[in-house]
Design a protein that fits this description.
It is a single chain. By secondary structure, this protein is α/β, with parallel strands linked by helices. It folds into two domains: 3-112 and 181-303, Rossmann fold (3-Layer(aba) Sandwich), CATH 3.40.50.300; 119-179, Orthogonal Bundle (Histone, subunit A), CATH 1.10.20. The protein is 54% helix and 10% strand. The protein is built from 15 helices and six strands. It has a six-stranded parallel beta sheet with strand order 3-2-4-1-5-6, with helices on both faces. Strand 2, helix 2 and strand 3 form a beta-alpha-beta unit. The two termini are 13 Å apart.
């Protein structure tokens, strides 16, 4: 069974930088486990590694779909499986790096075999979302299935609608049905987790949000919206993009948009931490404000035995 190393942790904890440093030390290649880095030209808001970083360490599952297209977890697993096979055949080490918990679970344990889509229910829910706003549907989900509502972002229209669709068609919460999920590992998984003090993580989140604005997030979103296909519902729900779209529609000032991005990112980080704390077999490393990515990578490599060959 192929061994895959997972670098986990909440958004802005430094997973990407640490993952690249580890990859340099062990002849590794990165498999991005991020549901928004898959989109081309969505660069600033997703915090993609720069071309220079990607030239130093090969990255996979980045820039593989147009922003106007939808993207499923099933498609991600197929792409990631192909990348892991390619990396392994090249004699390198696959390093899966990212914080999209659903993608981590699907890649390690397999896909949830839920009920078939119901076009009538889905159409009704989409119409309701358009009329009342996606926040109203998330509130409804919180009443019906609080477990799912806790882990699904308030802007994640696709997953909110799917969860409500499953409830309406089966009368059971999707979180209950997902307990059927296969728990046999698809790979030999080694989980390495990064964690920071809450205040430090919030400082990094706030600073990153400010850099996104200063680096031209507004212009990036304007450009994407001007494309013939625009942004898919899934892409438009990404944190940073959803708030900037509201700003461009005149619903918020730029200063208010920045604050909303900070708040929503902190909420996402909390959901990620909650989910990842429930995972078994994670070797956790504390990362401090004055740590460099290289020093963290050194600590990890000293403690974990990387049997490469």
């Amino acid at each position: 069974m192929t061994k895959v190393w997972f670098i986990l942790g909440p958004t802005a904890c430094g997973k990407g930088a640490v993952g690249r440093e580890i990859a340099k030390r062990i002849d590794g290649q990165i498999v991005s486990v991020d549901s928004m880095k898959v989109y081309r030209r969505m660069d600033i808001g997703t915090g993609k590694p720069s071309p220079k970083m990607r030239s130093e360490v090969p990255h996979h599952c980045i820039d593989i779909v147009e922003p106007g297209e939808g993207f499923s977890v099933g498609r991600f697993v197929r792409q990631a499986d192909a990348a892991i096979e390619e990396i392994s055949l090249a004699g390198s080490v696959p390093l899966a790096v990212g914080g999209t918990n659903l993608y981590v679970k699907a890649l390690t344990e397999g896909l949830f075999d839920g009920p078939a889509a119901d076009p009538k229910i889905r159409s009704s829910l989409k119409a309701q979302a358009k009329e009342e706003g996606i926040a109203a549907l998330h509130a409804a989900l919180a009443r019906l299935d609080p477990v799912s509502a806790e882990r699904i972002g308030t802007n994640d229209a696709k997953r909110i609608i799917r969860a409500l669709e499953v409830y309406r068609s089966t009368g059971r919460p999707i979180s209950e049905l997902q307990k059927q999920w296969d728990t046999l590992r698809r790979y030999e998984c080694v989980f390495i987790g990064l964690r920071r003090e809450r205040e430090d993580l919030h400082h990094r989140i706030n600073a990153r949000a400010k850099r996104m604005i200063e680096s031209g997030l507004r212009e990036e979103v304007e450009s994407l919206l001007a494309e013939p296909a625009g942004l898919s519902m899934q892409a438009a729900a990404a944190i940073g993009y959803a708030e900037m779209i509201e700003h461009l529609q005149g619903e918020m000032t730029l200063a208010e948009t920045l604050e909303r991005i900070k708040i929503n990112t902190r909420r996402m980080a909390k959901r990620q931490r909650t989910w990842q704390r429930r995972m078994a077999d994670v070797l956790w490393f504390d990362v401090f404000a004055n740590d460099s990515a290289g020093s963290v990578a050194d600590r990890i490599c000293q403690k974990v035995e990387f049997f490469i060959k």
